[in-house]
Structures are given as structure tokens and as C-alpha cells.
From TrEMBL:
Gene it is expressed from: tsf
Region (Involved in Mg(2+) ion dislocation from EF-Tu): 82-85
PROSITE patterns: EF_TS_1, EF_TS_2
Protein name listed in UniProt: Elongation factor Ts
Coiled-coil stretches noted in the UniProt entry, renumbered to this chain: 207-267
Domain of life: Bacteria
A single cellular component GO annotation: cytoplasm
Domain Translation elongation factor EFTs/EF1B dimerisation, residue spans: 73-238, 242-340
Principal subcellular localization: cytoplasm
Annotated function: Associates with the EF-Tu.GDP complex and induces the exchange of GDP to GTP. It remains bound to the aminoacyl-tRNA.EF-Tu.GTP complex up to the GTP hydrolysis stage on the ribosome.
UniProt keyword annotations, A-Z: Coiled coil, Cytoplasm, Elongation factor, Protein biosynthesis
Subcellular locations according to the entry: Cytoplasm
Similarity remark: Belongs to the EF-Ts family.
Length: 358
């Protein structure tokens, strides 16, 4: 039998795109004959993975794995080319096995994943075998894990269509309290899945970004007001143009000045001073709500809760703290949706032919 050298395996791999072990086994099967090895791989469907890797994978599944002790949560997005393959049992098993593997081995990057070993096989080779078997390009696009320390807890949610997944981490007053908080965290994950917040709170927003978004918000509201003035619909009054877009802009001086303004109004209305304390907080909260519209769009804490749209998530958390008798601090969350940020390639056959002829 001919000696199978590393150089022979390398050349076959570069030519076919098949996995290293598949190339080595193919050369052994045909006694080192390069052309026969290429034919062997193609007949096995293993020589097509490289060609398939050129095709955009924008469908697929999101998967979520929560450790039994609710101390570690992992979410992953693995892409396929078509929605049809995303429903394939082998692909579903691949997503679950990969997400579990990521969590159990504390992997943090896709590069680390490809260098790892799963079920005794290098992950890169394992994935290429799956590509060859399933018949489409498959890509582990991204993943993230959240871990809980002492008095911490995680949970997650995956939507029934498998296209949206969320994980969240929180801390409590005690380890005992974490058990009480689990179900509530899952409800928050469901809210995040539906409402798509990008940030945890206004404190995470960059001030320059907020100020730029404020200009865009005012322009949008003014344009809508022009249309409402034109239509003259009594049921659609003009929007009140806010002075600010986020609590990030509402410093202590601004809030103090507003409070003094409210007091002056109450005095002018001859309201008894003894009832001011009951009125001022509500008016101040109304001012904050009117001037933090960006928070309600982009931040979890500033959004109105899907299960009680009269309260923000921040208010619901405070209510839940009283109900469960523990402090609940949301530390972080991650939301993945299949294909977000990816553009599907539109094949223009006519343009392709014209390009080849030019």
C-alpha cells in the first residue's frame, strides 16, 4: 500500500474542500491515487462542501440551552441556505448538539469552536460532514453565553418557530431567592423576543447617539404633524414635540428645574401646598415619559411590558421585587434572530450573463 503523506492529504483537501480525515481515508481507500480519491469523495458527497460554502446561509435556527442549575445560559444561531433544511431533523440535532457542546466546553468564539473536538471529531470536520450529508452550506454564525455567580440566576426562551431566542442573567439577595425569580426571568425573555430591545437601560446609551436620534425623532414627529394638520382629524391631534429623547439627557439640574416649574404652576392654580407632594411625582414622571421616547424604543427597562402595557419593565421589576421579597438586578441579556443583518443575494441571471459577455 502506498504511503499516505501529509502533503497528499493537504493537496486533496485544497482541491475538494472535503475534511482532512475524509481526505486521508479516501486516499487509503484508493491506494494513494489522487484522481480516484477525488472521484471517491464526490461519490460520497464529501467533495462538495467547499463549493457549498460559497452560497449564502441566511435561514436556519436559533437554539437555547440552560444548565440544570440555572447558572449558565447559551444561545446560538446556526444558518442554512433554505428554510426547508432548517426543519430537517438532522439539522435540528446539529443545532442542539453544537449549542450544548459550546456550553459544556465554555467556548467563547467561533474560532475556538472550530478548533474544538466534538464526539471525538474536530468540529470543523464534523461540520463539513454535515454540510455534505445535508446538502447545503451550514454556518455557525454566532453564539453567546451568560453565567451567574453567587446569588445569580439565568434563564432563556426560544420562540416556537425556532427563529428567535433570548437568554438573560440576573442577581438576587440570596441563593434561595434565585429559585423564585426563574419564571419571571423567562417572562422577561418572552418580552425581549417580542419587543426587540437593543440595550438594557438608558445608562448604556451613548450621549452623542442620543442627541443624533433626538434630531431624527423631532423631524419624524414634525412630518407627522404636517400630515395631521392637513387631514384635520379631531381624533389625531398633533404630537407634542419633546425637548429631550432619553433619560440620559435628563440630568439633576433639568429635573430640579422642572420640579420648580410644576410647583409654580400649582401655586398659580391655588392648589393647597399640603397636597403638592401627591401631585408633583406624577407630573414629574409624565415629563420624564414624554422626554424619553428613545428609551421606550431601544431599552429593556424603558419599554412598556407586554403583559401589562401600563407599566414599564423597570416598574414591573420593582413590583416583582416586593412580591417575591428580593432585590432583582438584571445584569445582561442576549437576543438572536435568524438572519438579522444578513442580506439575501438576489440572483439576476440577465445581469450575470451580461457581465460575462462584457
Amino acid at each position: 500500500m502506498a504511503e499516505i503523506t501529509a502533503q497528499m492529504v493537504k493537496e486533496l483537501r485544497e482541491s475538494t474542500g472535503a475534511g482532512m480525515m475524509d481526505c486521508k481515508n479516501a486516499l487509503k481507500e484508493v491506494d494513494g491515487d489522487f484522481e480516484k480519491a477525488v472521484k471517491y469523495l464526490r461519490e460520497k458527497g464529501l467533495g462538495q462542501a467547499a463549493k457549498k460554502a460559497d452560497r449564502l446561509a441566511a435561514e436556519g435556527l436559533v437554539d437555547v440551552v440552560i444548565s440544570p442549575d440555572f447558572k449558565s445560559a447559551t444561545v446560538s444561531e446556526i444558518n442554512s441556505e433554505t428554510d426547508f433544511v432548517a426543519k430537517n431533523e438532522q439539522f435540528i440535532a446539529l443545532t442542539k448538539d453544537t449549542t450544548k457542546h459550546i456550553q459544556e466546553n465554555s467556548l467563547s468564539t467561533v474560532e475556538e469552536l472550530h478548533k474544538s473536538v466534538i464526539n471525538g471529531t474536530p468540529f470543523e470536520e464534523y461540520l463539513k460532514t454535515q454540510i455534505a450529508t445535508i446538502g447545503e452550506n451550514l454556518v455557525v454564525r454566532r453564539f453567546a453565553s451568560l453565567k451567574a455567580e453567587n446569588n445569580g440566576v439565568v434563564n432563556g426562551y426560544i420562540h416556537t418557530n425556532g427563529r428567535v431566542g433570548v437568554v438573560i442573567a440576573a442577581s438576587c439577595d440570596s441563593e434561595e431567592a434565585t429559585t423564585k425569580v426563574r419564571d419571571f426571568l423567562k417572562q422577561l425573555c418572552m418580552h425581549i423576543a417580542a419587543m426587540k430591545p437593543s440595550y438594557l437601560s438608558y445608562e448604556d446609551l451613548d450621549l452623542d447617539f442620543v442627541e443624533a436620534e433626538y434630531k431624527a425623532l423631532v423631524a419624524e414627529l414634525e412630518k407627522e404633524n404636517e400630515e395631521r394638520r392637513r387631514l384635520k382629524d379631531p381624533n389625531k391631534p398633533e404630537h407634542k414635540i419633546p425637548k429631550y429623547a432619553s433619560r440620559k439627557q435628563l440630568n439633576e439640574d433639568i429635573l430640579k428645574a422642572k420640579e420648580e416649574e410644576i410647583k409654580a404652576e400649582l401655586k398659580a392654580q391655588n392648589k393647597p401646598e399640603k397636597i403638592w407632594a401627591n401631585i408633583i411625582p406624577g407630573k414629574l414622571n409624565s415629563f420624564i415619559a414624554d422626554n424619553s421616547q428613545l428609551d421606550s424604543k431601544l431599552t429593556l427597562m424603558g419599554q412598556f411590558y407586554v403583559l401589562d402595557d401600563k407599566k414599564t419593565v423597570e416598574q414591573v421589576i420593582k413590583q416583582k421585587e416586593q412580591e417575591l421579597g428580593t432585590k432583582i438586578q438584571i445584569l445582561d441579556f442576549v437576543r438572536f434572530e435568524v438572519g438579522e443583518g444578513l442580506e439575501k443575494k438576489n440572483e439576476d441571471f440577465a445581469a450575470e450573463v451580461a457581465a460575462q459577455m462584457s
